Amino acid sequence: MRRALAVVVCCCLLAGAAVAVPSAGDRQSARPATPATNTSEYLTIGPDAAESTGYQRATLDVSGTLALDTRGLDGRYRQLVLDERFAATDSTAKRREMLQTNADRIESRIDGLQRHQSTAVREYNNGTSTAREFVIELARIHTAAGRLGVAAGRVADRARSIPGSTIDSQPAVSWARNRGVELGPLRGPVRESIATTLRGQNTAPLDASTAPDLEAAQTAPDERLEALDLYVATASEGVVLATVDDGRHSREAYLPSERANESAGSLTDITAALDRVADRYPWAWNNSVSRDASGDRQAGVYRFTLFYDHGRLTTNLDSRSGAVFSEQQRNRLSAMPTTDPLRRTSGDLRLTVNRTYPTGPVELSLTDRAGEPVDGRITIANHSVGRTGTDGSLWAVAPRNSATVVARANGDTVRIETEFSPASNRTTTAAGSPSTAER
């Protein structure tokens, strides 16, 4: 079941992981939290860098869907043209020229997409575009990046018929793989969820455990459409996306300006890059059960994926600056470590809040005084994040700052004011040099 999907958009810096605070029963209110070491470090916004913050919402959007599909059709058309022209000639020289022309176009389009995203963030920050337009634009970029990745693979496939063929002095397969690595920060599971929502494919089954919700439109006797709730915080050109969906918390961070921050020191080879990952993500590194690597100095990016007990982390490092500038995380909610709970009782309602970290998942539980689950409406920072349903439980995405969590059911209201930010953490600021604090 998909309940109260939430997305967070923010600019990024490398910070500590899960938070832990002492429990004070029903009297607990806002107080600082300290980071724990039982989940991965993460990319998040700097304390003074945010330009825009707040919850938004994405829904079925016909015009947005047409834009996504049009971009996809354009990519498919270009590949068909390449296939036809490639098959129409037996000249090795002409085939090599076609491949290089298409490779140059793909690289130019990648540069254009990167600039386009930076422009989209700036326009959202200065009010030129609305939240709806901004979210649609992120989905368009995701779709276009996917098509460019397919196009790069097609070029490599065609190059196999030409012995010894290279692109930019690289084997064609290596060139295509490196383009995929470069496109990675422009794509991700959260952006895919946004595109799915715009197309009207974000559905949940209707059954006895599904709470009625007037905000969800029924599309069939056994399913309904659901909106995607967005929490938006941006700074400069950077963006982070996070969502709670289908029992998982997914999170993407992209901070292109960090690629120019040379304070970390350039990476000479993959061994140096691995050492940098171990330094920036000590918990994830020490607790990973397997690791995957791709990219190289010719790509300009090293990409590593670390798999650990409750999820995985994919991080991207710029080879020239040595800085972490992008990451993706995907964690299972059922295994996600949380802090000591905050609890408050009012009337016949008891609300329990289990926190992780800012823009991470937050578990919200609602019961009566006897401990029986209650279906109630939950708001965070005056924004409705959904209902707890018949099992009395709801996962959402936490905001980056302190906020009031409110539950309402059966005429009663209970609220908890809480802080989501760690008191200290390990960071790389958006403005410049790294700083290390005690974890």
Automatic annotation (TrEMBL):
Residues 345-414 form the Fibronectin-III type-like domain. InterPro entries: DUF7094 (IPR055520), DUF7096 (IPR055522), Fn3_arc (IPR056397). It comes from the Archaea. Residues 5-202 form the DUF7096 domain. Residues 421-439 have a biased composition (Polar residues). Residues 231-337 form the DUF7094 domain. Residues 418-439 are annotated as: Disordered. This is Uncharacterized protein. It comes from Halococcus dombrowskii.
